[in-house]
Amino acid sequence: MLGLSELFRIRYAIPVERHGATEPAERLRAITRPYLLRRLMTDPAIIDDLPEKIEMKEYCQLTVEQASLYQTIVDDMMEKIENSRGHRAPRKRAGRDGQAQAGVQPPRPGAA
Description:
The chain is built from three helices and no strands. It is mainly α.
């Protein structure tokens, strides 16, 4: 259906990834769509198939260099979001002590 890997690269991967061609992407989407099973978590028919949500919080202290790198990436991504969707989300800044304020928190007293 999709051919050998080299043929796939020539027909789809290179034109889409390197040249931003939309026609090969649409063609690939049309070919593969019937084989994709899309199920939503809100669908009551599948809710029993889903495992319980497991959430693990890991607390760590960022170095100043790590916080700076993190903030650079956050700023870059926020700019891309703002430019692509036309709305503004609140920015989260890294503190002076290298403590990022976006989900990375200091260890709680007594936590190991």
